[in-house]
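User: For my dataset I need records formatted as: sequence, then structure tokens, nothing else. Please produce one.
Assistant:
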Amino acid sequence: MNSENKGIVLKDTNNFTYEKINWVDLETIPDDYCVIETKAAGFGPYDVGFITGRLRISDPKRNFNLGLEGSGVVIKLGNNCDSSLLGKRVAFLADYHNPLSILSFAKFSVVDRNSLIILPEKIDFAQGAYILANPLTAKGLFIEVISKSKSKSIIQDTSSSSLGKMITKICLKNGIKIINIVRKEENIKLLEEIGSSFNLNSSDKNFLQNLEKFVQEINPDVYITYQGGNFPSRVFDKMPFDSKMVSCGNINNEKLHGFSTTDFIFKGKSIEGFQILDYIKKISEEEKKKMYDEVLKSVEEGQPEYLTQIYKEYALEDFEKAYEYYKVNSSLGKIVLKP
């Protein structure tokens, strides 16, 4: 195979170029790794976090390329990999902190064999590039948090995101009421289109009063947040006794603050975290396979719960244009990079 590999290399914050990647030799890859000819790469908050410096590289002196999610065709196997993988269409999650990896913003990706799943023929590469992180997070949150809490209603912020809309669709399908919080009035229309009734704009001057009314009406016992700072504490303050907050991300990279000890000592409230990669590691292989199969089947059949809306495609070398577009239009749908 041609060992020349080009991709988006991040040298430091806001300093990225499309250039040759030469720190992994594609001809002599590690035993547990696969080389994938990348067909599509997803672009999401993790990538933006590293570009802007909100998220940190494990070794800041080492150049690395971008791309958490991707899909493509397996073209080379390490010695410990199952030979049946060769030539298979796959989706994968890459490890930003692993110096042996080449991530998805590259002509060829190098990933651990355990980080990929085989794509059915009916799922194209663009949809495949988004088949793991958000759909599995949505499914995992539903199983581990919503179902185990026996929730009949929940609250969610950052609801116009792709993940937020997936959670909304799953809840509505299962008869669970959901209070959705967004930051722009136009995003409420996006939620109304998928059937959401309890929608709030956090920029509205009456936001907290309206939130309190909704809480009294449907009595949510779980609050899913993707934010840092003091916004989650303001919402949490309105939650009923014995409810809990689940932190799934930090899109604004601020420390959580503003919580009242009264909530924890006298009202029985609690806070916990959820991260899909950690969740997948702790469940059994049977549970993991069941999750994968359900998500893949749903997408393959065109069911709406786990489908990702692909809004625009860019060639990988046009990454800067894609990045500028994403910063302004991320709530419209996902963009795909094609090497």
